[in-house]
Amino acid sequence: MPFWDTVMDSPSDIAYGNRLVPNVVDEIALKDPARVCFSFPLSSPNPQGRYHDVTFRTFANAVNKTAHFIRREIGCSAMFETVMYMGHQDIRHFIILVALMKTGHKVLFSSHRNSVAGHAELIKQSDCGILLYTSGFSVNLLLESCRMESVCIPELDYLLNDDALCDDFPYEKTFEEAKIHPCMVMHTSGTKGLPKPVVWTHWTLAGADTEQLTPPFEGRPTLWGNLLTKTSKRSFSALPMFHGAGLISAVTRACFGHTAIVIGPPGITTADTLARVLDHADIDSAFCDPTPLEEAATRPDIMEKLGRLKYVAYTGGLLSQSAGDAISRVVPLYSVMTSTETAIFTQYATDPEDWQYVFFDLTINGIEMRPHKGNLYELVIKRNAAQADHQAIFKNFPHLDEFSMPDLYEKHPSKPGLWKFVGRKDDISS
Hints:
With 430 residues, the protein is of the alpha/beta class. It is built from 16 helices and 20 strands. The strands form four sheets. A seven-stranded mixed beta sheet has the order 2-1-10-9-11-12-13, sandwiched between helices. It has a six-stranded mixed beta sheet with strand order 6-5-3-4-7-8, sandwiched between helices. It has a five-stranded antiparallel beta sheet with strand order 16-20-19-18-17. Helix 1 (21-31) packs across helix 2 and helix 2 (56-74) crosses helix 3 (92-103). It is globular and about 60 Å long. The chain starts with 20 loop residues before the first helix and ends in a 6-residue tail after the last strand.
């Protein structure tokens, strides 16, 4: 029996797809305050293996402290002004995100790997004039290049200190009032030029919540509505917090789902990092980019530990055939489709031997697999008003009626509905 068959259905009185992250945080903090939402190592490189669990009570209090701080320093916004955040790789990314929602701003997250020119382009395109940053994080070059007001935010220890509860900072909008309001600015990779900003709305984030209403397809549960949100109690997120996939997978799974998100030590996640997390963080699943998995597949010690998990998911690139085959023999392995422009897709679980493939319902996603050349197909999304909740691309770009990723796929040789990514259209020679 697949392990997902043992997962209980969620209560039917929850308004899936019509919930706002700030309201969910406050509601859980009130009704289930001891529930853990995030966990992180107490020291780096964390030789003792001690992790600090953050409850919703603590997280909501930290959000309120930060919202009050932001209001004192820069005021609230009625026009969703853009505020850039640059800081150390810790859960203040999540705290800042929700706090700025409460103060009426939208937050710009720029990859730490961007050049100063890349940062500057995003600041210009998103009309951003304020920078929030953490102490000890270098922002001098950025401030020399861009005229911005800058504010250093409080230390994490202060934000997570529950000795004195902060006054509430309510977020009083309903979903219908706020769903099309912008709340965050992500950006494209910039691999072929400067990165371009992509504005996400509350409705974009709610797409992951909507997935909980999507029924199984031929007995297969959805990834976002079931496997990634309900089957795991503690999931290691190796995705950068300043990237869209890292943010949406962490925040939505913690808030809309039932999974505590475990953060690793600062820096790029390696196979050794993964091994330490497996040893000390009490995780039962992992969501990674392919890099640490490539090396982990060659390490019997790590493979044995991966075999204890309920699943491993990956996104953000291709995983080699040898690594994927090795990992899928010891633990269910899922390829997750994400992009800055489209956020997530409705996907279903695949069999172990099909780990390279994505399984989705073309109708729900509004996808047309348009013939390209030979046995290749271009993934095109077409607007379908009946499936609006599942089409984040048109929440982010409401003026479009059609969007090409532009990614090329090939069909599974024998199983309908399964598609394998083979590359970008521009990168495959004609």
